[in-house]
Amino acid sequence: MKFLVFFVLCLIIAIETKYSQRKSPIANCKEPIFPGRCKAGHRRFGYNSATGKCQEFRWGGCDANGNNFRTMGKCREMCESGQQRVQYPLMQQQQVKVPPMPQKNVKQPWI
Q1: Are 67 and 49 a contacting pair, CB within 8 Å?
Q2: Is the pLDDT of residue 90 over 90?
Q3: Which of 46, 47, 34 is nearest to 83 (CA)?
Q4: Contact in structure between 59 and 39 (CB atoms under 8 Å)
Q5: Which tens digits make up the pLDDT trace of 46-85?
Q6: pTM assigned to the model
Q7: What letters, b where the CB count within 10 A reaches 16 and e where it falls short, cover 43-55?
Q8: How many angstroms separate the CA atoms of 62 and 77, rounded?
């Protein structure tokens, strides 16, 4: 009975870990446009982070990453409008005072 409970708990943890590691839609848009290694030539759309726009590309049919959308509208919805919604606060710089260097003739207790 204890083994069964342990097994179920391990299974739940493994499943939760797998699903919590999924990338956010914004992270998918930051991936490069990748045509894959196959040669089928499906019409797909991906976000080009250099231009800030979605563009058409030919996907081979296998090895897709998250930056692979069936329609231009879906690409724009997920990537172009999503970039405008997410804003990260700028960190403020703080000045730190550095203590003066010790004199040459002064003995330090830790030396």
Answers
A1: no
A2: no
A3: 47
A4: no
A5: 999 999 999 999 999 999 999 999 999 999 999 987 554 4
A6: 0.54
A7: ebbbbbeeeeebe
A8: 24
Q: DSSP for 32-92?
A: PP---SS---EEEEEEETTTTEEEEEEE-SSS--SS-BSSHHHHIIIIIHHHHH--PPPPP
Q: Could you give the CA distance from residue 75 to residue 46 in angstroms, rounded to a whole number?
A: 6
**pLDDT value of position 36:** 92
Structural domains present in the chain:
22-84 (4.10.410.10)
Q: What are the tens digits of pLDDT across the range 21-33? A: 455 677 899 999 9
Other residues' Cβ atoms within 10 Å of the Cβ of residue 19: 8
d(CA 7, CA 54): 45
